[in-house]
Amino acid sequence: MFLKSLSLQNFRNYDKAEFEFFKDIIVIVGPNTSGKTNFAEGISALSVGKSPRADKDEEIIGFGKDSASITGIITSKSLDDDKTSLQMILAKREDRGISKKYLVNKVTKRRIDFAGNLLAVLFSPEDLDILIGGPSLRRRLLNEILEQTDRDYRNAFTVYEKALRQRNALLYSARETGQRNEKQFEYWDKLIVENGGVITKKREELIENINNFSKEIFDFVAFYDKSTISEERLTKYKNAEVASAVTLVGPHRDDVSFSMFLGNSTYDIKSFGSRGQQRLTILQIKLVELSIIEEKMGIRPILLLDDIFSELDSGHIKLIFEILGKQQTFITTTHKEFIEKEKLKEMQVIELIGKRN
Question: Model pTM?
Answer without folding.
Answer: 0.89
